[in-house]
Write a structure and sequence with these properties.
Order of helices and strands of chain B: HHHHHEEEE
Largest sheet of chain A: 4 strands, antiparallel
Number of helices of chain B: 5
Radius of gyration of chain B: 17 Å
Number of strands of chain A: 4
Number of helices of chain A: 8
Strand order of the largest sheet of chain B: 1-2-3-4
Radius of gyration of chain A: 23 Å
Helix content of chain A: 55-70%
Oligomer: heterodimer
Number of strands of chain B: 4
Chain lengths: 168, 134
């Protein structure tokens, strides 16, 4: 009987949270910024009490939706104020510029050269290829974006006419 | 604004569903904390000396008679008789539509186990403690 109750509570929680997260927009689940992480952490803890009957479902719904509403409001403010955005989500940092790692930034972001190498290897760039990199940027959600220098960029559709000229 | 409104609509719908379940379907244990969870939470709060937190589990009548000081005295007397309470778990005895009985089984340092019995009643869909016997 208790197992049945847990199943009903879990199913209700699943549907309610799915609806709430869909309302809050794609960014709550797709990005992994500090704000999104905080929401996942708090809501995750609230669900636990609701599913096991430690608190009434109404408390769980009101608690979780308050956190999600706070998240929506905070993201709306961050959207209109870059300063607030930097305060709540942090700034991206350039770890490597024109093939050379920036020691001070690496230290500030607590990223070792080995970790930077690991991120770049994910993009298919080993140590000797670092000179091809214009910028390696640590984004606010923790991923490293790599921008290649002009001669090393992959061919784009717009390069086709120039390529035809060269091959003539 | 659309996102905020839609969250409010979802919350309204969920609360309405919970309300229907509690009032019309006479659900006493699924959408609300079952009696055993209420007595377990209450006993845990008082044995951890969080008396003001424990008051929310008492019904109106009992809250009028019991205050933080009387809960302190209750726990003091309990600890004198059975020693320190190490762990608590709640168990249902009988659960009706609006009345229930449950017990809190405590693991104690001196007597190993001690059981407290509770009578509960429902107010606005929530189980609240009406009387207790430690």
């Amino acid at each position: 009987m208790e197992l049945g109750r847990i199943a009903v509570r879990a199913a209700f929680t699943f549907i309610a949270l799915l609806a709430l997260l869909r309302c809050s927009g794609k960014r709550s689940v797709v990005q992994g910024s500090s704000l999104d992480f905080v929401v996942a952490l708090i809501v995750g803890d609230m669900i636990d009490d609701g599913v096991y009957g430690q608190s009434p479902m109404s408390h769980m719904i009101v608690g979780a939706s308050s956190v999600i509403l706070a998240h929506i409001v905070t993201s709306l403010i961050a959207l209109s104020s870059p300063r607030f955005h930097d305060l709540t989500e942090g700034k991206s940092a350039v770890l490597l510029r024109d093939g050379a790692p920036d020691g001070a930034i690496l230290q500030q972001e607590r990223v070792s050269i080995d970790e930077l190498g690991e991120h770049l290897r994910h993009q298919g760039l080993v140590r000797k290829d670092w000179k091809q990199v214009s910028r390696a940027i640590l984004e606010t959600h923790g991923h490293v974006s790599v921008l290649l220098r002009e001669p090393f960029k992959k061919l784009q559709k717009r390069d086709r006419p120039r390529l035809r000229e060269v091959l003539k | 604004m659309k996102a905020i409104l839609s969250v409010l609509v979802v919350v309204g719908l969920c609360l309405a569903m919970i309300g229907v379940s509690l009032v019309h379907l006479h659900d006493a244990t699924t959408m609300t904390s079952p009696p055993e969870a209420v007595v377990e939470n209450f006993t845990r709060e008082i044995t951890l000396h969080r008396y003001s937190q424990a008051l929310k589990y008492l019904n109106k009548d009992l809250r009028r008679r019991a205050d933080v000081e009387s809960l302190k005295l209750l726990v003091g007397d309990l600890e004198f008789r059975v020693g320190e309470v190490m762990d608590v778990h709640g168990e249902p005895i009988t659960v009706g539509d609006d009345e229930a009985e449950a017990k809190a089984v405590m693991k104690t340092s001196r007597t190993r186990f001690h059981t407290a019995r509770f009578e509960l009643s429902r107010q606005s869909g929530e189980w609240l403690i009406e009387s207790m016997q430690f």
